[in-house]
Amino acid sequence: MLPVVYHPIYSDFPIPDGHRYPLSKYRLLKEHLIDNNWPVVEHRPERLESAQLKAIHDPEYVDALLSGTIPLVKMRRIGFPWSDALLQRSLTSLGGTTLTVDLALAHGVAIHLTGGYHHSHYDFGGGFCLFNDLVLAAQHALAYPHIDKVLIVDCDVHHGDGTASLTAERDDIITLSVHCEKNFPSRKPDSTIDLPLPIGTDSESYLHAFLPCLKLALAQHQPDMVIYDAGVDIHIDDELGYLSVCHEGIAKRDAAVFDACADHQIPVAAVIGGGYRTDHAQLVPLHAELVRAAINTYYPTTWNETNE
Ligand SMILES: [Zn+2]
């Protein structure tokens, strides 16, 4: 059965009323999988330690966030008020992405039911991202003796600016960002490969642009592991995305990523990434496509008649 990583804290920390962050979607997604008897095994992460954070982030930035002494202006850029609960949630979800790497290396695939904090840079965060779980997880993967190169495939509608800047000088972490060219963040430092798409790009054009790019990245860089950010804010109805990809297009994208990695026998750790609707429940079927695609590729015989 497919390993999935989840902790109740993901949907349980205080944010102001009316905040954009889709707080309940993590719990709703997990309940959807369990209530409908999907063939998944739940794993619960531990918090990441500060020493691991300081391997990629500025130690002063890490200490300021851990102690709550971070300047207000920096928290405003992140988009949350500082609280110990927020910090614990963040550390737990970072541990979740590294656990997802461990599980993917053991089983070939694993999915984290949150994650994708790609706007976090060396010494500042942004766009709801405190620390960069994707780079932390890549760093974690590289500690395995047989992992020399990690490819981060970032399909969130927003550019992976923090991931790009944190890995700019490295050749052991390759970054591919597929994003809307006219969307947050305004400054987009170069990823290894950037695929900017115009506003309104539909499913057909999206897949036509992305799939050859993915195949080229796999062939050219021959990574030992893929970390996949499967943001669904590329959907036409997303409130923070300006692309026009439909539900079926998201399903095809996720299936294509797993199929390509399975073809090359490259383990994949996937995170659900962004997805923004006032009604969080509407995001669940979109994020569930990632889980469905992984089951279809890696555990096709585990579906049974009780699944929805
Ligand atoms: Zn996003």
TrEMBL record:
<dbReference type="GO" id="GO:0016787">
    <property type="term" value="F:hydrolase activity"/>
</dbReference>
<dbReference type="InterPro" id="IPR044150">
    <property type="entry name" value="HDAC_classIV"/>
</dbReference>
<dbReference type="Pfam" id="PF00850">
    <property type="entry name" value="Hist_deacetyl"/>
</dbReference>
<dbReference type="InterPro" id="IPR023696">
    <property type="entry name" value="Ureohydrolase_dom_sf"/>
</dbReference>
<comment type="similarity">
    <text>Belongs to the histone deacetylase family.</text>
</comment>
<feature type="domain" description="Histone deacetylase">
    <location>
        <begin position="30"/>
        <end position="281"/>
    </location>
</feature>
<keyword id="KW-0378">Hydrolase</keyword>
<dbReference type="GO" id="GO:0004407">
    <property type="term" value="F:histone deacetylase activity"/>
</dbReference>
<protein>
    <submittedName>
        <fullName>Histone deacetylase</fullName>
    </submittedName>
</protein>
<dbReference type="InterPro" id="IPR023801">
    <property type="entry name" value="His_deacetylse_dom"/>
</dbReference>
<dbReference type="InterPro" id="IPR037138">
    <property type="entry name" value="His_deacetylse_dom_sf"/>
</dbReference>
<dbReference type="GO" id="GO:0040029">
    <property type="term" value="P:epigenetic regulation of gene expression"/>
</dbReference>
<dbReference type="InterPro" id="IPR000286">
    <property type="entry name" value="HDACs"/>
</dbReference>
